[in-house]
Predict the structure.
Amino acid sequence: MKKLFSGLVVALGLGMFLFSSCHSKKDSMSSYTPPQTQNAPDTMIGAVLAIPVTYQITQQVGDNMKKQQQELVNGWEVLEYETYEGDTIVTVDFLADSNGLQSIKLGLNDTELFNINSAKLSPKADAVLSKVAKNLNNFPETDATIIGYTSHTGPEQFNVKLSKERANAVMNYLISKGVAKNRLKAMGKGWNDPVASNATAKGRAKNRRVEIWVTANQKMLDKMK
């Protein structure tokens, strides 16, 4: 009986130690909020990493991306925010890339960039895209993936082609402003991944958009090894 009682005491003490260690670790991480993932597209967004993602790297990338995001937001403040039926047509959000690292999702409604059914950039596009180019040039340790989308109207083949051409038009503009070509990738997804209902004019207007995903590249990650 005495041996049994001693064994129970030892087991109880070990359990309390493990609980205390786990609880302390949890408390030390409680100030960190992981990036959102629910709106990330099914397209692979982000670099193919040559190093494992650690908690420290995740935090450092998040800090760097917040600085870049703030510069973008400051740039938009000097512009007049145009709206379509009450919705802001330029948005800046934080979401996770395919590595679980924080990235910037810049959403641009196509009424700001293009004429209807056209992949030619409108005169208004320069005011917005010039600020994107300046931001990318100021933060060379990030890359950008440009994705074109359309509404669910007209033939599918036409919409896929138009979305690709629009993404390429944005990419070529950024290159013309000095952003290195190897930092950019463009793709078109047609009417896939809608953000609103295609049953209404307002919903279709939201779906006609270009998204620019700004992510940490290998240069940034190599500095954190």
Notes: DSSP finds seven helices and seven strands in the chain.
